[in-house]
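Our preliminary data section would be incomplete without showing what the modeling component actually yields. Below, a chain of 175 amino acids is followed by its predicted structure, encoded as tokens that our downstream tools consume directly.
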Amino acid sequence: MEALTSYRQLVAKVDAQWARSAQMLGARLHCGPGCCDCCRQHISVFPVEAVNIALAVDALPGDAADALRRRAARTPADGPCPLLDADGHCALYAARPIICRTQGLPLLVATDNGDQVAACPLNKVDGAPLPAAAVVDLERLNRILAAVNRLFVQTAMPKAPERIPIAAALEIRIP
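Predicted structure:
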């Protein structure tokens, strides 16, 4: 789907940043397969991310898409991410949204006390200095993602809601 080109380019840049940060931080990052502490909330995403997820569900083999949709339908709104399986793995890891791609990385966030670096408490980013290039400016990334979403909505989904829960994204059917 051509309307997703800008989003997929942003995803590639975020993934490249993750790789650079992981290389710089090494063992200080705990994140890896099966680590799912940050997946304990059912989040909502922008329409551009929801459509990307819907396309990934449609590409699943056999009855896997229907099974995932059934599991998502049973997941309470205040429960864990409906993409999280019993082993703590994301069923659509390759199509996960931007917020999931940045979890664990040191994030520069604006607070009432000025900009601060925050990260998963399992990662060892406190104390020792962090290379500036390993830190993601979350406000900047969110502004870029919002702009990419606005472009997508204008061209592909003008009546889309502002946010779509993950479980609802799984129900989107792309013709």
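The first helix runs from residue 5 to 25. Helices lie at 5-25, 47-58, 64-74, 98-102, 138-156, 166-169. Preliminary results of this kind motivate Aim 1 of the renewal.
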